[in-house]
Amino acid sequence: VLAQLVGNTVEKFCHTADIEITTHHVPKVNGVDGAARQDLAEWVVPYAQAMWRDLQGTSGRLNFRHDHYLKMWALTEPSLNADVIFFDEAQDADPVIAKVVQSQRDAQLVAVGDSNQAIYGWRGAIDALANWPAQARLRLTQSWRFGPEIADEANKWLTALESPLRLTGTPGITSNLAPLSHPDAILCRTNGEAMGQAMKALDRGERVALVGGGRAIGDMAKAAQALQSGKATQHPELAAFTTWAEVQDYVEQDDAGSDLRVFVRLVDDHGPDELIRATRRLVGEETARLTISTAHKAKGREWHRVLIGDDFRQPTATDDGKPGKLPKADAMLAYVSVTRAQHVLDRGGLAWIDDHLAGVPGPPPRRARRMTDDDAMAWS
User: Fold this and answer.
1) Could you tell me where the beta strands, DSSP code E, fall in 112-237?
2) What is the pLDDT of residues 161-173, one digit of tens each?
3) Would you call 254 helix, strand, or coil by DSSP?
4) Closest Cα to residue 344, out of 229, 219, 183, 214?
5) 89: number of Cβ within 10 Å
6) Is the dihedral of CA 189, 312, 146, 305 positive or negative?
7) What ranges make up the beta strands (E) of 70-219?
8) Backbone angles phi and psi of 41, in degrees to 5
9) Backbone angles phi, psi at 209, to 5 degrees
10) Which positions ≥6 away from 209 have C-beta within 8 Å?
11) Which residues neighbour 267 within 8 Å (Cβ) at sequence distance 6 or greater?
12) Is 111 exposed, middle or buried (0-12, 13-18, 19+ CB in 10 A)?
């Protein structure tokens, strides 16, 4: 587990524009927080630095991957022999590549993207458009994917983001907001909700595809299976726990465990064996009647009829009963989600945007106990 964490630290470093590995590059570990997190990070860094030295050597023994030689090349401050460089998806740029492109002085640089769709900040991506040294900025506001009704829904999220951009749909495309009993795609916030939706569809006898496949959720189910049997697991999401009861306590008592909560409930309701069997019943997208995806994996995709899953959380009300703050990352993910539909959008788990914009408070806050440093050290 620790070796895996060291490797993940080097991988994270390789995506940055940094020149040396520090504690900043050590990934978050579920169940390890506070002083324990800092202690762990300080322990990992010397091993990650040693791994990086091994990878750069001609006689290195460790597994050499694409991220490694890309970072090594970037550190040489290369000059690209080009007249014009087009940099696409610049709102979710790996800093290592953004720095290489922005360092070019003999080429015209053209960056393309949408800052409202910057949904990969959690894995280290940056919005390179925000500080791009541009002489001119041109804005495309016409969508050729959907009609005015879906554009209007997307604009609600742009309003929540306080973005100056407003979309217009294509008048010739018929689109509307309506409940869907047979969508082409269901988009979810988490892997756990996506698998839950897949299991419901499988129980109805539908042919279901999960974008990216079921391996990720199957591996997590196997990790849960091990913890329930009193064994340790090397799965990075659950490696800090020694029993399944600890995982259950973590998702219920600590706000940091909210993204694991749906998965834990799936395991508790169905058992890990049933989850594993369900992943084996999934089919490829080319033969599926229903495609289910996380919103992140749906980026760049489109379907005729899209249903939004139920795990997009409305901000809870403040202690004095006022609307809670909508995290920017959540609003951007919602914006990406509603703009995947071409003809029919069932807002499902994102219908609460109307209340939020009208100033209606969301549900009351959960009364959760924050995990203490002593808890974290014990769990680590």
Assistant:
1) 176-177, 185-188, 208-210
2) 999 999 999 999 9
3) coil
4) 183
5) 17
6) positive
7) 84-87, 108-111, 176-177, 185-188, 208-210
8) -60, -40
9) -115, 140
10) 282, 283, 284, 285, 287, 288, 290, 291, 292
11) 221, 224, 244, 275
12) buried
- Phi-psi group of 113: left, alpha or beta (phi > 0 → left; psi -120 to 50 → alpha; rest → beta): left
Q: Which amino acid is at 278?
A: A
Structural contact between residues 338 and 345, judged by C-beta atoms closer than 8 angstroms: yes
Query: Which residue is listed with tokens 């299976």?
Result: 225
What would the two tokens of residue 373 be?
Answer: 């440093």
pTM: 0.86
Q: What is d(CA 112, CA 58) in angstroms, rounded to the nearest whole number?
A: 38
Residue 196 C-beta-side C-alpha neighbours within 13 Å: 20
11/67 Cα distance (integer angstroms)? 7
Q: How far apart are CA 100 and CA 76, in angstroms?
A: 10
Q: Tell me the per-residue pLDDT of 209-238, one tens digit each, with 9 for 90 and over.
A: 999 999 999 999 999 999 999 999 999 899
